[in-house]
Amino acid sequence: HRILPTIYWPHFFQNRSWMIAAQESFLTWCLFSPAIMQISSQTKQRTDLKRNLKFVIITTNLVLLISTTLAQSCVLILEFNGFSYQPSSYERSSKWNFLTVSTNSTVSDKLIRQSSFIVGDQLSRSDFHPSFDSGYQVLRLATELVPAVLSLIEPDNMSCYWSVAFYLSLIFFGIAQQLVIWNSFISGVISFEAKTLIRWEITITFFSCVAAFFFSLPFTTDLGIRLMYFFDYVIGTGWWLMLLLFLYIFAVFVIRGRPCTGDNVIRELFDIDNDHSFCNVFLSTFLTFIWSIVLPIMLIIFSIVQMKQCKVRD
């Protein structure tokens, strides 16, 4: 409790909290694992798959740890200055307020339902009208918590460098994400006429990213956030993505079969033929069992539970 005083610990033992954590884990690795496939496939040279895997895992966990620590620190600073955070909703201006004077109310009194998506999340309060207020906002850490803390802390106590560094790092992460996503599109365009278009790869990449930027500008408007909520809800619920991933695993490992099997993937990842250490043998056997039996079953179970929890019918 002293390390994480802002956590309402009874929520830690609720089934709903674990389902949200499972959903966020699935969305995180469902988005970042294709980066390994993209890095490993779009090159003529032999790549070290284990090195790429370690890099993505370490970078992802490091960013998540820093974000969690920053969010916890922001909540502590707000409480120290006599404020408490409450979820806001984008639909009505009367529900835009996300700061209130600190009271003795607990988190369970303020939060009824929580759904975490890709870009934003949905937090419902008891005073939200279900027909008018969704409780959805995008990037609450960057749009609510950090700006509120920066407005409370005096310039003598914290340099403006940290605010610039925070938002500049978000910009760099966005640019890097765009380059990874659009690399697949650019590779597909170049493949039509590889000998001619390979010289224009940098130009095609630049104009593709610029076009994507201008196409995303409408999402910053009042109508755009409604479209963002729709797409984020459809994709972020994740239940149909779990079904697609299950079908993909079944098609590749069962229908397609050799050489695309879990054993061959493990051999390529851990180099079993040359390294017979206990750690490699144990991890290879464990991952083969997980990928072949446990993972497909868990995907089906999570898909059904997630579809029920997110109230898709509503």
TrEMBL record:
One of its GO terms (molecular function) is amino acid:sodium symporter activity. It comes from the Eukaryota. SUPFAM superfamilies: SNF-like. The chain crosses the membrane at residues 53-78, 164-185, 197-219, 239-257, 278-305. It is a multi-pass membrane protein. Keywords: Membrane, Symport, Transmembrane, Transmembrane helix, Transport. One of its GO terms (biological process) is amino acid import across plasma membrane. Belongs to the sodium:neurotransmitter symporter (SNF) (TC 2.A.22) family. It is found in: Membrane. GO terms for cellular component: plasma membrane. InterPro entries: Na/ntran_symport (IPR000175), SNS_sf (IPR037272). This is Uncharacterized protein.
